[in-house]
Amino acid sequence: MLCQSLTRERVTIEGRERFTGELAYDEQAVPVASALLLCPHPFMGGTMENNVIRHLAVVLAEAGLVTLRFDYAAISDTDLAANMASFWQTGHAPHDAALIEDARHAEAWLKQQFGLPEVLMGYSFGAHVAASLLDKSSVAVVTIAPTVVHHDLTPLCTARTPKLVIYSNNDFATPQLATDTWYAGLAEPKRKRCLIGGDHFYKRQETDVAEAVTSFLRPLLPGMKGNVA
Amino acid sequence: MICRSADQDGVKWRGRVLVTGATGFIGHYLLAELLKRGVPCAALLRPPLSTNVARLASLLRPLGISIQEETTRWRLAFLEGELNGAMPGESGLDIRSILHAAGVTTFEPMPNGEPKRTNVNGTAGLLAWAEAHEVTDFHLVSSAYRCGETNGPVLEKIDRDPPAFLNAYEESKWESERLACAWAERTGGRLTVYRPSIVVGDQRDGRTTSFSGFYVLARANEVLSRWYGESDAGRFATGLRISCSPEGRQDLVPVDYVATMIAHAVADPAFHGSVYHITHPKPPRNATIRRAIDEHFGFAGSSFIADQPIDETELSGAERVFYESTRVVRRYLSHHPVFDRTHAETLEAASGARCGSLDVSSLRRLIGYAQSVQWGRCRAPRERVEDDRDILIDRYFADYLPRHVVRSRVAQLTAMTTTMRFVISDVPGAPWVCGFDCGKLVRVRRTAEPDTVDFTYTTTRKVFWQAIAGEVSPQDVFLQDMATVTGDVEAGIKMAVILHRFNHEFPCTPEDLRVTQEAAPCCASR
Predict the structure, then answer these.
(1) How deeply is B366 buried, as exposed, middle or buried, from its count of CB atoms within 10 A (0-12, 13-18, 19+)?
(2) What per-residue confidence (pLDDT) applies to B189?
């Protein structure tokens, strides 16, 4: 079904630094929830224009959610090289904590603007950010290609929030075996979806990812468009 | 169909238009025009995608469109596929409309099956793809001359009965319309048909990438000019008899006008579902064209002989040269269908498109541009330029990179230890292998020998130049299929971001390498 009233709105959010994002929503519908979309690490080329993040933003907005995706605030030139160095050597950068702080500001802004039940969605490093933000106010959390080997995802393990894990069978950053093992240790309720033939980038699989996410959310958000009354 | 809404931030779009033939003459103008209007597009490009993306970038650049910017803003994406081969599967690109601008303009049947192969079979394949992917909005770029030998008024409607055709091209375009019409009836889809007449270069500067139609006629005069030689007084008394009426009109239409009209209609659903003759409101007369050609090439003495058959056994030498060179288009000189423009005029008024007069000076501008690019046959000089630049790529690895890595803050602090291979697929010769140890470039080799590397980047010459100039982001490079990374992909992606940073510290252009050629010793290997 075509959504002719989808609105995209560029927003500026004040945090430790000012950063920009984009809201998407159906202006003729009453939103059922908000979704905060957390993109991969900027040192891995992650921006809010990422193919998966962008596609999810639109599909979920069409389904009746308010979505917010954003670019983490830029790192200063002074700190950039040192952070890159650390990231190259360890897969972590001192600046990572600041990226999580950006996400907290985005989350707070979204809550303040709409006051809706919140879904967290993190892709790659964004899954680590989602885990860091997770609290009882979240109605669901979706992790796509969570970097189970590189980052601390502990808050997800014990949380009773409904969880969806999307991964693929050929991902350098989210090895299938390690992900299955990690998933086994997650508290219920949880679901997983392994996309066969994909890798870390989900190029040309954006629709499959979005379909998995909307299927997961429908029972949790009865007001979503397309749900049978 | 794609749809839009407006708010205080401007127009917002949903869905994408799949554009076929985007590297073609009309196609790349159409794509540029849609992008300028903010319409999200996906270009269907033949494999190898990276090569054709680079080709498209070079076509769009003179029209003020940066592929880098458009892809970054997500307004332009690419799909790899062939109308007569493997079409893409599920793209995830939210294709809602198709603008089918691909086509060949070969008039006579060719051994490879053209023009039917692309214009008919390709259209059939695309319509099947549309049906399978539930695309219900189809825009077909046809041709006004699918009317065949019809001389009377040609209406803006789909004809059920085929006319007599002048050539296989006309028949193929008529057949493609019939197929599209059948698709619309079968599926309930909405079909919009655009019928340009003889498309010529941009009315602003004469730019063209196609040299058929009018250009065949113009080029025949260049051949004739060479036949005479500059000092031959005979060129001022050619005695050339041209078998058509001076008052007959050739429906030439500038490509930018065609693109503006079609793009406006694609973007506005109010114009969907009709047929449009994208023709010139007042086409130039044969006499005007003759005068432009005479002035341009320094000829005089030709005459029109309307309605009088020419005995080809009695042609003069000049006439034989002229008629031989214009054989494929000659019949159009005396063929003057009148195209109804009722729908087109409504579209023209809404779009603001302006089709300027094709007078002597503007016709000469068209010819002048075509000559300046050797009627599209600049391949040899262009290749020489590319060869020159390929030598500079060697210089980049052997000289520029080592000299600047030692000064690079990001290299020093990152202290990376890794070995990588660069394969530039359209540059002849072996790939380059670079070894870093604690941030120092300790080895640069150009070798076809197996070498232990952590990862390999494969890209094209054009993307390479864009990358080292800092013009493309790593995310775009990999997600838009402009390059691939194999081996340790994670390290490759991390390194791509570091290299991008390095390229921002020390952006490099071919000019930089030419300037530094004599300033630093060249080190072939370290």
Answers:
(1) buried
(2) 94
> Helix, strand, or coil here: B285?
strand
pLDDT in tens, B278-326: 999 999 999 999 999 988 988 888 888 876 777 777 778 778 777 777 7
Complex-level ipTM:
0.79
Is the pLDDT at B11 greater than 70, yes or no?
A: no
pLDDT-based confidence at residue B212 (cuts at 50, 70, 90): confident
B437 touches chain A (CB under 8 A): no
CB atoms B489 and A206 under 8 Å: no
Helices (H), B298-397: 317-325, 330-333, 342-351, 360-372, 379-395
Residues constituting chain B: 526
Backbone torsions φ then ψ of B23, nearest 5 degrees: -95, 5
Is this structure's pTM higher than 0.95?
no
B296 φ/ψ sector (left φ>0, alpha ψ -120 to 50, else beta): alpha
Q: Which residue has the tokens 């869905």?
A: B15
B440-472 per-position pLDDT tens digit: 888 888 877 666 889 888 888 888 998 999 888
Whether residues A4 and B474 touch (CB distance < 8 A) is answered with: no
Between CA A17 and CA A35 the distance in angstroms is 22
Which of residues 57 through 116 in chain A touch B, CB cutoff 8 A? 58, 80-82, 84-85, 87-89
User: Is B12 close to A6, i.e. CB distance below 8 A?
Assistant: yes
Nearest to A49 among B72, B92, B416 (CB): B72
Long-range own/partner contacts, residues B155-160 (CB < 8 A, 24 or more apart) = B155/B340, B156/B195, B156/B274, B156/B275, B156/B276, B156/B277, B156/B340, B156/B341, B156/B342, B156/B343, B156/B344, B157/B275, B158/B193, B158/B275
Asked if B1 and B190 count as a contact pair (C-beta separation under 8 A), the reply is: yes
Contact (CB, 8 A) for A15 and A105: yes
- The three state secondary structure string of B188-201 is CCEEEEEEECEEEC
Give, to the nearest 10 degrees, the angle between helix B489-505 and helix B461-468: 60
Instruction: Give yes or no for B463 touching A (CB within 8 A).
Output: no
How many beta carbons lie within 10 A of that of residue B37, not counting itself?
Answer: 17
Cβ proximity of B151 and B202 under 8 Å: no
Q: What are the chain A neighbours of B410 within 8 Å (beta carbons)? A: 80-81, 84-85
Give how far A82 is from chain B: nearest CA, Å.
Answer: 6
CA distances for A137 relative to A86, A141, B15, B93, B374, angstroms: 34, 11, 33, 33, 68
Distance, in Å, from the CA atom of B410 to the CA atom of B424, rounded to the nearest integer, reads 25
**pLDDT of res. B380:** 37
Q: Which of residues 64-93 of B touch A (CB under 8 A)?
A: 72-74, 88-92
Whether chain B has a CB inside 8 Å of the CB on A199: the answer is yes
Would an 8 Å CB–CB cutoff place B410 in contact with chain A? yes
- For A185, other C-beta atoms within 10 Å of its C-beta total 9
- Establish if B438 touches chain A: CB-CB under 8 angstroms: no
